Amino acid sequence: MTDIKKGLAGVVVDTTAISKVNPETNSLLYRGYPVQDLAAKCSFEEVAHLLWHGDLPDDRQLADFEQSERAQRHLDERVKRVIDELPREAHPMDLVRTAVSFIGAEDLTAADSSPEANLAKSLTLFAKLPAIVAYIQRRRHDLPLVEPRDDLGYSANFLHMSFGEVPDLTVVKAFDVSMTLYAEHSFNASTFTARVVTSTLSDLYSAVTAAIGALKGPLHGGANEAVMHVFDEIGTADKAEAWLDEALAAKRKIMGFGHRVYKNGDSRVPTMKAALDTLVAEYDRPDLLEMYETLAGAMDARKGIKPNLDYPSGPAYHLMGFDTQVFTPLFVASRVTGWTAHVMEQLSSNALIRPLSEYVGPDQRAVPDRE
Ligand SMILES: CC(=O)SCCNC(=O)CCNC(=O)[C@H](O)C(C)(C)COP(=O)(O)OP(=O)(O)OC[C@H]1O[C@@H](n2cnc3c(N)ncnc32)[C@H](O)[C@@H]1OP(=O)(O)O
Ligand SMILES: O=C([O-])CC(=O)C(=O)O
């Protein structure tokens, strides 16, 4: 029998210059820069520029970049109408996926996959996703669309469009940090999906639409939503240990824990946990922190399995005021930078991605004659 690497675990399928995930040193580099330092010192706009162009922008480049992003922030009436046609109860990930697909169908230059065209499309999606996600968040509460403000940075504007006001700087910074941390993570399932689609020479919108579908699952991005459901199911921290014992006995996967690559903790968690701590102080919610610590401690004690980025980001988005079902769309708004960087990298040295499988079905047999 062939040595099959189920789930492609441990298989290196290509090179990438975009990010380096190193489980040995528990580190993550974007284009050579430690992600913690980027989160501390740079805006998400700078990080997006870094991922797409390979380097941080100088002042002039940043000003140009910000200007192009701010000019495209509004929600197009037709995209709004498409969202409005869909049930209010539809999962926000399905709405975001449909909105991106619609934008792709409307763009008559979608098939132009030149580096310049793909860069322009990437920037368009980056600029428009906050409006889409913010509108979905508001529509769930029967609230009207909030127009973007072009005097605000990406994260402050995102929060303004979501809630109609700009929160304290601490909250804006925590949100911006989450965007930076979620932006890129080498060949994770959704990015690999984007690369598979791109490898057939399909267009960038199709790759991003497919990637959104892959991100939705609870074993990947959907876990940030699932963490909050777990917290709700447990109720209060004093019940966390008993809940965990029962869940593990029932062989349940505990959402927000474990990782395919990191086996000793996720490099991004300390930075996001620090951001969560600032939010807990800001909103005076020590109960949430107690739940976080108790469940994480119990999981470590019982299984030695550590939290991944979705574990601190779920409660952080909750404190900011987002509905639980809107957490994974926030991940989309960030990861679109990494996905599109990978689309462009894949095209720069493309090979159709088409692995082999070992057939284990019935041997060849004759189709019975039909009357
Ligand atoms: C941003 C992100 O996408 S990060 C990932 C977000 N996903 C989640 O948080 C979902 C919960 N986690 C998981 O399901 C897994 O840890 C994954 C899918 C992320 C990684 O899985 P894999 O690399 O395939 O590891 P695998 O599932 O084989 O786990 C190895 C062992 O640890 C156990 N394990 C791993 N994660 C968990 C978990 N969250 N809860 C309980 N047990 C777990 C498995 O049951 C398995 O045990 P076994 O050897 O006794 O069968
Ligand atoms: O790398 C992975 O498999 C999942 C992950 O953490 C991410 O995509 O951010």
Automatic annotation (TrEMBL):
Pathway: Carbohydrate metabolism; tricarboxylic acid cycle. PANTHER family: CITRATE SYNTHASE (PTHR11739), CITRATE SYNTHASE, PEROXISOMAL (PTHR11739:SF4). This is Citrate synthase. Belongs to the citrate synthase family. InterPro entries: 2-MeCitrate/Citrate_synth_II (IPR011278), Citrate_synth-like_lrg_a-sub (IPR016142), Citrate_synth-like_sm_a-sub (IPR016143), Citrate_synthase (IPR002020), Citrate_synthase_AS (IPR019810), Citrate_synthase_bac-typ (IPR024176), Citrate_synthase_sf (IPR036969). SUPFAM superfamilies: Citrate synthase. It comes from the Bacteria. Keywords: Transferase, Tricarboxylic acid cycle. It catalyses: oxaloacetate + acetyl-CoA + H2O = citrate + CoA + H(+). It holds the Pfam family Citrate_synt.
